């Protein structure tokens, strides 16, 4: 019987044969637990008609499991040393295509058009390199890709922030940025022991389901996010102080007071207590003051 790539003995043999050594700087922590791999893929609800995009296939442990549940897989891998290994380990899966590229540099929309054309249901599934989790997730969310969502392993601490609700200590501008584009839920907590080498931090799998419409309609998205970032600039400060210190409003205190009255938000509240909808209201009401 063929062994899974993730089987610790198979993995050891593959790594030894190719003289592969892990690069910490590339976030290389490979999964060696079949149950976790199955569970990650199950969270993506793939069918035999689905397309999948993987980021960082490593030696193909997760790729193999994704491949068993989808029509086509495109995997972006930055580390050239892994390419000959992947062509060997993934040889039984001709519907997997590995692209040698930094995901942050890749034109993912173009790759989808070229490699996953005709496939309606596309998911991103990945055990992400932790040094670059947030830029990858924000790239995937903001590039308007035709995907249903993202299921990915990330640091537990980051997962807590992405899925955080207003009024909690984890809620910050990143929570709002992500939740503007997607519904976020933590679907699995993962111990360090299922990786080789074990990372220093705990992990979790998060599912981001892309929204068809944002949860709030704003006049100017860029300004909306600027207001959010300003409101969280110093966590212990009130909205009033953060906005005055971080937006050019120092000469407009009276107008600012009127804005807060009109939208019925107490300026003494902290940013961490506002919902996305309240931030939307605040940004639209503030915009005329800064024109
Ligand atoms: N998927 C494999 C697994 O689960 O065992 C490996 C996951 S490992 C956490 C992260 C992988 O991402 C590594 O293979 C690493 O080389 C790759 N990687 C790191 N930075 C990348 C980037 N910017 N673009 C694409 N791949 C990257």
UniProtKB/TrEMBL annotation:
S-adenosyl-L-methionine binds at residues 29, 31, 56, 77, 102, 127. It is found in: Cytoplasm. Residues 36-212 form the Ribosomal RNA adenine methylase transferase N-terminal domain. One of its GO terms (molecular function) is RNA binding. The keyword Nucleus does not apply. Keywords: Cytoplasm, Methyltransferase, RNA-binding, rRNA processing, S-adenosyl-L-methionine, Transferase. Its EC number is 2.1.1.182. Pfam families: RrnaAD (PF00398). PANTHER family: DIMETHYLADENOSINE TRANSFERASE, DIMETHYLADENOSINE TRANSFERASE-RELATED. Its main location: cytoplasm. It comes from the Bacteria. This is Ribosomal RNA small subunit methyltransferase A. The gene is rsmA. The keyword Cell inner membrane does not apply. Belongs to the class I-like SAM-binding methyltransferase superfamily. rRNA adenine N(6)-methyltransferase family. RsmA subfamily. SMART domains: rADc.
């Amino acid at each position: 019987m063929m062994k899974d790539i993730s089987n610790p003995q198979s993995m050891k043999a593959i790594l030894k044969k190719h003289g592969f050594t892990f690069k910490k700087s590339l976030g290389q922590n490979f999964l060696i637990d079949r149950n976790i791999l199955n569970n990650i893929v199950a969270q993506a609800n793939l069918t035999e008609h689905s397309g999948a995009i993987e980021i960082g296939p490593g030696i193909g442990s997760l790729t193999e499991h994704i491949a068993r549940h989808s029509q086509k897989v495109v995997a972006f891998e930055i580390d050239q040393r892994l390419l000959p290994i992947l062509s060997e380990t993934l040889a039984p899966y001709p519907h997997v295509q590995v692209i040698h590229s930094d995901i942050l540099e890749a034109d993912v929309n173009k790759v989808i058009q070229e490699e996953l054309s005709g496939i309606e249901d596309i998911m991103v599934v990945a055990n992400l390199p932790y040094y670059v989790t947030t830029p990858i997730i924000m790239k995937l969310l903001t590039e308007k890709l035709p995907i249903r969502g993202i299921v990915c392993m990330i640091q537990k601490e980051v997962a807590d922030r992405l899925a955080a609700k207003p009024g909690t200590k984890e809620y910050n501008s990143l929570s709002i940025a992500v939740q503007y584009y997607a519904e976020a839920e933590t679907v699995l907590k993962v111990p360090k022991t299922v990786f080789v080498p074990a990372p220093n931090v705990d992990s979790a799998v998060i599912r981001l389901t892309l929204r068809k419409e944002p949860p709030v309609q704003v006049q100017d998205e860029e300004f909306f996010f600027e207001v959010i970032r300003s409101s969280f600039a110093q966590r212990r400060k009130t909205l009033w102080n953060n906005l005055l210190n971080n937006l050019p409003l120092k000469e407009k205190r009276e107008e600012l007071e009127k804005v807060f009255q009109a939208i019925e938000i107490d300026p003494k509240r902290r940013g961490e207590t506002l919902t996305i909808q309240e931030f939307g209201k605040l940004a639209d009401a503030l915009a005329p003051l800064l024109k």
